[in-house]
Amino acid sequence: MTQLPVRVLVVDDSTFMRGALVRMIERDPRFKVVGIAGNGKEGVEKAQELKPDVMTLDVEMPIMNGIEALREIMATVKTPVIMVSTLTEAGAATTMQALELEAVDFLPKALNDKEKNIFKGADGLHDKLLAAAGVANGRAEKVAEVQKEAAAVKVPVSSVSRVNAKVVVVGSSTGGPKALNVFLSGLPAGFPLPIVVAQHMPPQFTLTLAKRLNEMCAVEVVEAKHGEVLMPGKVYIAPGGSHLRVNAAGVSVDEERGESPYKPSVDVLAESVRSTFGKQVLAVMLTGMGADGAKEFSHLKTMGAHVIAQDQASCVVYGMPKAVVEMGGASEVLPLERIAARVCGLVGI
After folding, report:
1. Is residue 243 annotated as a catalytic residue, yes or no?
2. Each residue's pLDDT tens digit, 17-26
3. Residue 198 shares a structural domain with residue 339
4. Does 304 fall in a domain?
5. What are the pLDDT digits (tens) for 258-305?
6. Which domain, by its residues, includes 46?
7. List 173, 260, 265, 331, catalytic entry
8. Residue 161 burial (CB < 10 Å; 0-12/13-18/19+)?
9. Is 311 designated active site?
């Protein structure tokens, strides 16, 4: 259990940005900023001295940049880090690198001098900080927590050896980029089904994610485009800021908000998959904060689709998979490193 208030260290070379972040963070009494730093080197020193529960770390800083500081932090105190990155192609690429280096999450910022408009997705900042602080506790308490969870909720297992699926649908959020890399890199180039993915990310970042995954995986990975036809062995990442839907003709992309607070939304994508393919679906829920996708994944299982949820021990944040399990929507629960092989077996390769 995370002890309150959550102690936060803010690292940014801009006095204005530091002040804006501190004010935003301390609007919620569950959080207390215990220190600030103006460059990466000072940030590393403050992290080692103050041992905060979580820290925000700007990407572009003098003396030592955010990536260099992150490497040093992960090698020493292992403080959970939320990167603060600009909404640019370069910012997105650096953020992907940071997530691969064990940053828990990121907060995109616009190049804007109005404080209320600086941070895109800032409404979720406190949730991200709380989840990241939970990661710190999880490093020390993981075994006991997983055992307690297993006792409280019966973890489903499956003896199914094959499924008659026409598509794979994947949901992910916090920790998702790295989890997607592990999962998708385990699939062969000749994978027989199309794969559609909803990963919670803003515009530009999903394109960078798709490009990065495409470089690292045998399957082809693209950011989905409106009107594309689904092809076997190809992965379609929902564009940030838009909903991805599947229909008989292929995929559609739109920016309508609808009922979901997320764009892209796992529930929106999964509902369209269910409407198009019925029970001929293989669904995978990876690490993430919240419960997006749990409702529709549960509907899929009720119809006869096969649903795999990532287990707690291998999740960065055990939120979305947990919600699927608690709603009875999981056919089985597996550690991340076993999901690709299981999916391959289920589709007969």
Report:
1. no
2. 999 999 999 9
3. yes
4. yes
5. 677 889 999 999 999 999 999 999 999 999 999 999 999 999 999 999
6. 6-141
7. 173
8. exposed
9. no
